[in-house]
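Hello forum,

I keep getting stuck at the same step: I have a sequence, I want structure tokens, and every attempt I make locally crashes halfway through. Rather than fight my setup again tonight, could one of you with a working pipeline run this one for me? It's a single chain of 686 residues.
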Amino acid sequence: MRKVQGTITDLKTKGEQPFANLVREQFLLQPPVKLNKQLPNEGRKVLLFSDGRQKAARLARDIPHEVELDSFRQSILLAAQKLIDQDIEPKLSGALYCSLLQVIDEHKLYFFEGQDRKSLAYHVQILHEDFDGDYEELIENGDIELLPRFKTELLRQLCHPLYSVYTTATGYVEPVKREMARVERKLKEILSKEDIYVLTMLFIQEMLDRVAIDSTIHFYERLKIRGFGGDDWGVEKGYIPKNLENIIHLYVQSEEHKKEIVDALFKLCTESEGRYYLSPRKLKLIPGIYTTWYKCNDCKEMNIVAAKNKCVNCLSENIEILDVNSKRLDSEKGFWRSPIQKILTNHEKISNITVEEHTAQLSQKDAKIAIATTEEYELRFQDIILDVLEGPVDILSCTTTMEVGVDIGSLTAVGLRNVPPQRENYQQRAGRAGRRGTALSTVVTYAQGGPHDYYYFQQPEKMISGSARKPIVYIDNKKITKRHLNAFLIQTYFHENVSTSAVASSILSSSLGDTKSFFEGTPPFNYEQFKKWLNDNIACRFRDYPVIFDLIPDEVVSTEGILGGDMVERKWYIVKEACNELVSELERNYEKVKHTIQPIDGDDIAEVNPNDKFLDFLFNHGLLPTYAFPQDLCSFYIEGKDERTGRIIVKQRPQLEINRALSEYAPGRQIVVDKKTYRIGGNLCT
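Reply #2:
Ran it on my machine without issues. Output:
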């Protein structure tokens, strides 16, 4: 009996799939915004909010995975049907891929991510230029090489235990005519053509259930589909599962005839390292929308064939024939079949969605790169295409930083992955949609199972209506005031010397220069010169910079209880105190870390030491206002090769405050950055 391996779970809604389906419907229900043929979804956009970088990153990774499962299935079945209409067999190895490229071009689709996305778009361009009607020739001549990612995605569509074309009753795999004729010649003495077809189809499906197809695919891709597995994939020569053995026994009883049948069926396979896999070159994909299916009322399995009027899964005779117009077939599989039927019959458009992450994890920008990853995704979200092979971004999965982020005036849809902490958070996020007088905007809030989300799910009016809380700002803190004075003094000193120094531009472009040059370098941008500048201004009581006194709130003076003199005199006391403390703190903190600091050499700003840059040094030692941003940070470096120069660069550098990094960046943990999953490792030095 055919089984789906897995664990017993409850029926509670969980994971990204239900949210992905909600977002997809929210996305597709929007009216077109821009009638531009180069925009596959005509300017429709959705902005997603999550409370947490990793939650937003996982959404950006998982939503395309869920949506693509359906859109890719629709695309390959349409591609197969196009070939069938031209009397061409939709072979899994070549013709199907080229026909898929045509479908992608016609429907302006983008699949996959990263380099695979660009390669697929490039293959579409080649097809545009070189196609002359011969699908196989493009592959055989080497003009287009079958994309490995296409193979793995096709594997998922053929072998997934829950969402394959066979399980969803949308399609099936059968031998190409030449291979079918070869099997028939070998077995014509013992079986009829109809019986041979039944056994062949069952053998193919048994192999697909074991993910035993295409020996060139890496075992890890098979493991992701099956969810479990040992060291060996494929099957041994002559292996037939018990279920198929029972079916064969219905047709022949002779062991010799059984062996002939098995040998003939294995002609559809190729051998690799002693294991056998179905050969994609010998198989083709057939849409199953207009095909009769057989439903067993005992084991509830649905199959494309029946064996002597019996269920091929449990051998029950209680089977029901489901034709194209069957209401039962539509009720059970219509969710997957109906969209494909509309595409094949009514020529409706296939839609796929591009989702990208927008969090502080992607703010890293190498010195040789023009814009950071977040900036690139913002532009693509606004349909400003930087690379035609990449295309626009349809959905941006972001954190709370986008509550006051990029203004997309035409945005009409916002999705919230969880109920926000407070009413003002909800209002700020929901208010991103419908800013320019659109007739209708939608906001979908997905409540999770925690007490916070449950409370507001039961009483939504407390979240979506009412006045926001009034913010409270405490302005009588002397320590914070001194940090603002430090920022003013350092900024003014550097700006004053910009016009008089030849090295000013390079100093300012690297965050006020490096720490070592400031403390041990030559004037004007060094510690001794800065100390002299401070003493000169103290001597004249900052006559040229009277605005410095406006930085000190009257409440600070009152709280400090400074007696005597007017308000200006009392503020002068605080300014002088701040100047003296800044000089002593700079010198004291540099003495503690100077043995660890290296000068920054030219454009090489790898920033291995957090105090190498002078601006970072000031922040790390509490000399500048932090505006509630964390100071003690730990970086996670993701390196890669620059496509243009070939040199190793820091592609991403997510950071966390040290107390969170101790757990999230611990060895063995996994994090998601830019739709890639990384496992944390470490080196032990004893």
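The mean pLDDT is 86. If your local run keeps crashing, start a new thread with the error log.
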